Amino acid sequence: MADGDKIIDVEDVSQRLGENQILKGVTFAVRDRVRPGTVTGQIVGLLGPSGVGKTRLLRIIAGLDAPDTGKVTGPSGKPTFAGEVGVVFQNYPLLKHRTVLGNLLIAGAANGLAADAAKKKANDLLSRFGLDARASYYPAQLSGGQRQRVAIAQQLVRQKTILLMDEPFSGLDPESLGNVMSLLVDVANMDELNTIIVVTHDIRAAMTVSDTLFMLGRDDPKAKPPAGAKIQKAYDLVAEGLAYRSDLEQDPKFLALEQEIRAAFQKL
Amino acid sequence: MSLANALLPNRAVDRGMLVAVAGFWAALALVIWAVSPFQSLPGPLEVYRALGTLWWEHGMGPELLTTLKLIVHALGFTVALSMLLSYLTVIAAFRPVVAAVSKLRFLGLTGLVVPFTMMTGGGYSLKVVLLTFGMTTFFVTAMAQVVVEIPREQFDHMRVLGASEGRILWEVVVLGTLDKAMDILRQNLAIGWAMITMVEGISRAEGGIGALILNQNKHFHLAEVYAILFVILFLGLVLDYAMGVVTRVLCPHSVLERMKR
Ligand SMILES: Nc1ncnc2c1ncn2[C@@H]1O[C@H](COP(=O)(O)OP(=O)(O)O)[C@@H](O)[C@H]1O
Ligand SMILES: [Mg+2]
User: Fold this and answer.
1) Considering the entire predicted model, what is its pTM?
2) Is the CB of A48 under 6 A from ligand 1?
3) Residue A262 and residue A266: Cα distance in Å, rounded?
4) Is B157 an 8 Å CB contact of chain A?
5) Average pLDDT, stretch A75-103?
C-alpha cells in the first residue's frame, strides 16, 4: 500500500429503521497515511450529535448489519464481514463468567489462534495495558477504565487492521481520558495499516487523536420527517498541520478549528 | 452503633449482628409457640419427643433416604429436559414447543395421576414422572425467559471476535446463563420438595417421608406430624444451602455481581 490508498471505502450507505430514515447516502473513505521513516497508522474521528446514527453506521461498517443501499469495502477489496473488523462497543461487553485473562483467551480461540500463541499475546497485552495484576479478576471486579482497557485488549488479541470504537471517551475523568487517547495512538501506530475509527460526540478529544475528521449529520435536523444523516464535512488535520503533535491544545489554529467545528455541530 | 444499623433502613450489618437478629426472632417464635393459647396443638417438648419416637421406632432415617433418592432422580431428569428445551429456544422452530411445555404448569398434578399411572404402571416410576413433570414446567418457564433475555449485544460482541455460532451458543447461551440456571434449579428443588408429600402419598407402598406424614395424620398424631414437618423444612433448607455452595463453586462470578448491588 502507498500513501492515499483506500483502507476502508464507505459508499452511498443508507439505512431505514421502521419509519425513520437514519442514514442516507453516507460516503467516505479512509486512506493510508504514510510518513517516511515512521510506522503511522490512521485514526479517524467520526463526529456527530447524539442520536444521529453513529452507532448504526458503526454496526454497518463492522459487517453486523447490512445497509439498505450502498456498501462498505475493507482492505481486502471485499465487503467487510462480522469478525473481520474489531469493535469496542460503548458499554464494553465482556464475558462475565470468564476472568480478564479468560476473556482475552476466548478472543484468541474464537479467531482460531493456537492456544499457546493466544496465551503469549494475551499476557503481552495485559502488561502493556497495565492489567497484569487483574488477570484473574472477573469483569464485575473491574473499574470502568479497567473494563474499557480489557475490552480494547480483547479486540487486539488477533491483529486486525480496522478497529471501531463507539464513544470511547464518554464518562472518563481527565486523567483516564489522556491515557485512553495515548493508548489509541499507540495501538494505531503498531502497524502502518492499522486504522481506528473513533465514533464520538467529544469534539476536542476527537481532534486531539485523529488525523482525519468526518462529521455525520442531517441537512436539516428540524425537518419532519427527518432526512437521513450523511457526511456533512471532512477535515484533513494532517494537511492543516494539526496531527501527530502533543502540543496541539496551545495552538491557536487548533482552538480556532475547534470553535469552527463546534459551531458547525450546533447546526446538525 | 451496630444495633442502630440493624434497626434503620438501608444499612448493612456484620455477620455477628445478623446471627443475633436471627436468634432473637427464633427465640421469640419459640416463646410464642410455648405460650400459644391453642392448647390442642402440641408444644415444643412433645414434638421433640415425637421426633425421637419416629426416628427410633418408625424408621424415619430410611424413609428420608427413600425420599431423597426420589427427588434427586427426578431433579436429574428435570435438569436434562429443561436445559435442552430452554437452549432450543434459540432456534425459532422450537419456540412453540417450549412455550407449550411452559404453559402445562397450569394443569397441576392431580388430574395427571391417572394417565401417568397408565403410562408408567405406577409405583416408583410414576412418582419420578410426576415430580419431573411438575418441576420441568416451572424450570422451562424460568429458564427459557433467561435465554430470551440475553442482550443482543452479547451475541454481537462474540460475532465481532470472529466466534462461530456454535461457540457463541456455548459461551453466551450455556456458560453465560449457568449462574441463573443454578438459581432456578435451586427454586425448583424447593418446588419439588414442596410437592414431595403429595406425590409420595399417591402410592405409599414405597414409603418415604410423605407416606410417613400421611400415616401419622390419619391417626391424629399431631406431635409426630409436626416433627416430620420440621424435618422436611430442615432438610429443605440443607438442600437449598448445598445448592448455594455448588453455585458459588461453579460460578464464582455470580457472588461478585450480587455484592455490587
Ligand atoms: N433498533 C432501532 N429501531 C428503530 N430506531 C432505532 C433503533 N436503534 C436506533 N434507532 C434510532 O436511530 C437513531 C440513531 O441511533 P444511534 O446510531 O444509536 O445514534 P448515535 O449517533 O447516538 O450513536 C436514533 O434516533 C435512534 O432512536
Ligand atoms: Mg451511539
Assistant:
1) 0.86
2) yes
3) 6
4) yes
5) 94
Is the minimum distance from the CB of A170 to ligand 1 under 6 angstroms?
A: no
pLDDT tens-digit map of B146-188: 999 999 999 999 999 999 999 999 999 999 999 999 999 999 9
C-alpha to C-alpha distance for B217 and B197, rounded to whole angstroms: 12
Q: Which amino acid is at B216?
A: Q
In this prediction the ipTM stands at 0.90
Does the pLDDT at position B41 exceed 70?
yes
Could you tell me what percentage of chain B is helix, strand and coil, using 3-state DSSP and rounding each to the nearest 5? 85, 0, 15
Q: How far is the CA of A53 from the centre of ligand 2 (A)?
A: 7
From atom 14 of ligand 1, which residue's Cα is the shortest distance away? A53
Chain B CB contacts of A106 under 8 Å are: 161, 163, 171
Q: What is the mean pLDDT of residues A239-263?
A: 89
Partner-chain residue, chosen from B154, B156, B167, that has the shortest CB–CB distance to A110: B167
Average pLDDT rounded to a whole number, residues A32-51: 92
Reported as a single tens digit per residue, the pLDDT across B91-102 is 999 999 999 999
User: Which residue matches cell numbers 407449550?
Assistant: B100
CA distance B157 to A64: 10
Instruction: State CA A82 to chain mean position distance.
Output: 15
The pLDDT mean for chain A works out to 92
Whether the CB of B260 is below 8 Å from some CB of chain A: the reply is: yes
Cβ–Cβ < 8 Å for A30, A210 = no
Distance CA B163, CA A177 (A): 31
Reading the block at residue A199, the C-alpha cell is 465514533
Q: How far is CA B117 from CA A251, B101, B110, B113, B126, in A?
A: 87, 20, 12, 6, 6
Rounded to the nearest 10 degrees, the angle between the axes of helix A144-156 and helix A100-110 is: 20
User: How far does Cα A249 stand from its chain's mean position?
Assistant: 22
SS (H, E, C) A160-184: CCEEEEECCCCCCCHHHHHHHHHHH
Cβ–ligand 1 distance for A26 under 6 Å, the answer no
Q: Rounded CA gap, B216 and B60, in Å?
A: 12
- pLDDT surpasses 50 at B261: no
